[in-house]
Write a structure and sequence with these properties.
It is a single chain. β1, α4 and β2 form a beta-alpha-beta unit. The radius of gyration is 26 Å and the shape is globular. The protein has 15 helices and five strands. The protein has three domains: 74 residues; 206 residues, HUPs (Rossmann fold, 3-Layer(aba) Sandwich), CATH 3.40.50; 92 residues, Orthogonal Bundle (Tyrosyl-Transfer RNA Synthetase). It is mainly alpha-helical and 413 residues long.
């Protein structure tokens, strides 16, 4: 009987959580509830017949709901992503990185950190800019829809376990594995001096070790990445499996979440064959989230199209026009077909005007929220809350690994 009461008491406490969040779940959730309710009803009959304990109908409901809560909590995945504070955020960054996180935070445990340690990888750092960019980037993420009540946000550099785990991971990797990373090869080639000698920052070589630590420290299930980062996730999985095999089941082996093929990919306005980028030497091809209306309209008016004057979505043959349609789709939620119908018989000038109107409306909303956030103490509060949530997780994981490796722990017991 004590066991029944204990189970009931534990489950009852979890019911409140479900009642608050029940609207977030689909019809399959309702079906699962009905099945579990039937099971617990049978359990009630057996219990009464055996005179073990009398369970009231309300108890049956509570037990059913509790079981479902436990199942749902187990189904929720921890998703982690880092944002490098290197400057202003573009519309392309919003489409590829921020918007997917906004959509994911309802159904996943989203963890976002400002990757300020990655921001000094090459050693070329302006301290004043780093601080300013960190604050600015977090404010833009919050203004763009990241909800601190649903997502955890913290500073990478405030959690010292990131660098400690990075070293421990590095000791389980080889120079060959690190030097074979495509990004290392590409970026290191840019650090050749005029006399032909190389001066490659070591941070580039060890970047994957820190990235692996960022992920494994929190037992992340999912890591959203672009195709250029997939190799780093594969290395993270390899080293996690290697350490698990050697010391026991220490780390969760993460899975990459590559951007969906139907998600918006915003290209440069001046060269629609390449992605919109904050590092593009031609800033006329890039829309920044803090651009003013005058600059936005000027950039869009000068956007590359073609000579056909036919408005339809065809990325291969009409990349410029398709990119403008993609922007409307991203910001309005309309389908390609709906957008094409609206512009039947119209010229590219009409299309560019509509794109500019959509972008200006979107940016005005973002910039107003951004301003309000910077004028408040919200960022510090969010970062304080995030630190309190992740610091214990990081400490426990490091301690678990160090104990398994065999470090002398003077605080045991």
């Amino acid at each position: 009987m004590k066991l029944y009461i204990l189970i009931y008491s534990t489950i009852y406490k979890k019911c409140c959580y479900l009642l608050v969040n029940i609207m977030n779940y689909s019809s399959s959730f309702i079906l699962e509830f009905c099945l579990l309710f039937l099971i617990t009803y049978i359990f009630q009959i057996i219990a009464i017949e055996s005179k073990t304990i009398v369970i009231e109908p309300i108890d049956t409901i509570a037990i059913s709901i509790g079981i479902i809560v436990i199942i749902i909590n187990d189904m929720k995945k921890r998703l982690i992503t880092g944002i490098t504070p290197t400057g202003n955020i573009t519309l392309g960054n919003y489409a590829g990185a921020i918007k997917p996180m906004v959509e994911a935070q309802d159904d996943n445990e989203v963890v976002i950190f400002s990757a300020d340690l990655h921001g000094i990888t090459t050693g070329n750092v302006n301290g004043e800019n780093l601080e300013k960019n960190t604050i600015n980037t977090i404010a833009l993420y919050l203004a763009s829809g990241i909800d601190p009540s649903k997502s955890t946000i913290f500073l990478q550099s405030e959690i010292k376990e990131h660098t400690e785990l990075s070293y421990l991971i590095t000791c389980h990797l080889t120079y060959g594995e690190l030097s074979r990373m495509t990004q290392y090869k590409d970026k290191s080639s840019k650090f050749k001096m005029s006399n032909g000698t190389e001066k490659v920052p070591a941070g580039l070589l060890f970047y994957p070790s820190l990235m692996a630590a960022d992920i494994l420290l929190y037992d992340a299930d999912i890591v959203p990445v672009g195709k250029d980062q997939k190799q780093h996730i594969e290395l993270t999985r390899d080293v996690a499996n290697r350490i698990n095999k050697k010391y026991g089941n220490i780390f969760t082996v993460p899975s990459p979440m590559i951007s969906k093929s139907n998600s918006s990919k915003i290209m440069s306005l001046t060269d629609p064959t390449k992605k919109m980028s904050k590092s593009d030497s031609d800033i006329q091809g890039t829309i920044f989230l803090l651009d003013n209306e005058r600059d936005v309209r000027k950039k869009i008016k000068s956007a590359i199209t073609d000579s056909e004057n036919s408005i339809h979505y065809d990325p291969e043959n009409k990349p410029g026009v398709s990119n403008l349609i993609e922007i409307i789709k991203l910001l309005s939620g309309k389908s390609y077909e709906q957008i094409e119908k609206e512009f039947v018989g119209k010229h590219y000038g009409h299309l560019k005007d509509e794109v500019a109107n959509e972008v200006v409306l979107f940016l005005n909303n973002i910039q107003q929220k951004h301003k309000e956030i910077l004028e408040s103490n919200l960022i510090d509060k969010v970062l304080d809350d995030g630190y309190k949530k992740v610091k214990p997780l990081a400490q426990d994981k490091i301690l678990e690994l160090k104990n398994s490796i065999g470090f002398y722990n003077r605080n045991k017991g």
